[in-house]
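Form 7-S
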Amino acid sequence: VPLSQQSVFKTVHETRAPYVGPMADTTVNHRFLSALGDETPQTVMAIPIAYGETLIAILYGDNGAGKGVPPSHVAELQFLSAEVARAFQSLIERLRAR
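Output:
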């Protein structure tokens, strides 16, 4: 996903903050949704996964066409993103130790 053009991923990359809301009408977002099956979800969520100050991944989720992301899922996915970040940190530290 290119970060040089407007998208939900560029927004998360620049702000380093989770995004929950509608998928904006941009070329990159359309291409991304097409790759997933062309459904337009009502609400999407993108959560940054960082190692220190470095963004290493963005966790994306939606609930399908016409459905929102329930608030309870937002909290669960934020917890999951913290666990993913810790797993990446552990892996990176083990690789550096070799």
